[in-house]
């Protein structure tokens, strides 16, 4: 079957439109939770199918721009589908669908037990729309709108259950996000004042006529805004205190996906708007510190959720490293590593939810004997943990090797320092996950310092009827609902597929990186024949 090249024009708005319409429908059906779940899962499956088609079309036909509402660029709202945005849509759609299936299995509650689920599903769908909008945005303000949709939805999800700890973490998260949003707005204002446009392609051409000092200042402001959202050191201190307090599905989707939206924004701004690389050395230093500070923080943790939150911060440094190299191989490695990390980090946080369901705790001081109690749970943890640690032949090893090779090809001293820092971080990551394995799975529970405080069942019982158990109800300790286990295993399988099909996926990331390096492809797709004259019209 041959796909029409014009099909992308029809499909491009759907990853945003479908979840928003589904969110409205689920909000109306707040008293019918079964109908809500059906609509939500159907919408997320549809988004995944559409995203896969967009990736096929983008990889075959190249970059396509869609003008929403009939207004021509650069005035109207532009959605841009290229290999990078389509690849991010596919990976995020897989994660969002798997986490939702897991959440249905865990049994979502937003209040007392007699209150139906009326908020979680619409908010989750709004989050999906915000993520998709951020990946497709062709102008700075629409990117800002995507971030704000994420902020509003994530605050609701983060405070689900309204416990004091969650509200406190949610307030901290919102305050940091508001600061980031204000800085982003300031960056938008500065960019508009300098160029007279917010369309990314149009701005790219006009920035060429702007003094280099002004360009660097604008890029610096945008980097701070995006760096907060991506949790790049020293702007990452908020993350370990915010994510671990949320329910397991919420923590998983936040940790796996939301920081990568910030990384995506850095990639887009660096390659399209500011390709000269004035701040590459700053990015390299930030990448190195992000790696080392994050992994050293993980070593000091005794709670698995906080430990994984610090490893999340640490591995953002690899992506920043690839971006800062400003080479095709560096960008390709960064894109592949982003996709890998979204899948693996989400899987590990879902596994932590299974550990809490099995053992009643995520503290290493209370855990032990899980390998004997649940061999399936042990395997489901071990595979993504080894993947995160970069053990060959997993995708984590492939991604790190690609980045380290790109760094070693650079003649700069900083690049070689980051190669060493990346290697050390990988070894320390392996130490961290091995520590979790030996303490939580391998040793006897009686040897844990607080093992008597953890309620561990002698065996894991797979029980589909547990789907209606509330988040904080520990009466079901020792039972893992099948609908929680199946999506987790499925994500483990997708992570392994990134290894099996690494050649094909890296080929796509190579072509995506080549597109990013040649920004005329993006500019021509959006502006057409206008692109050749816009630089002359930039205000001075």
From TrEMBL:
Q: Please report the stretch or stretches of sequence annotated as the NADH:quinone oxidoreductase/Mrp antiporter transmembrane domain.
A: 137-421
Residue stretches spanning the membrane: 6-29, 38-58, 84-105, 117-137, 143-161, 173-194, 214-236, 282-300, 307-328, 334-355, 367-391, 411-433, 484-506
Locations listed in the record: Cell membrane; Membrane
Among InterPro entries, the record links this protein to:
CPA3_Na-H_Antiporter_D, NADH_UbQ_OxRdtase, ND/Mrp_TM
Q: Which UniProt keywords apply?
A: Cell membrane, Membrane, Transmembrane, Transmembrane helix
Q: Name one Pfam family in it.
A: Proton_antipo_M
Q: What is its main location?
A: membrane
Similarity-based family = Belongs to the CPA3 antiporters (TC 2.A.63) subunit D family.
Report what the protein is called. Answer: Na+/H+ antiporter subunit D
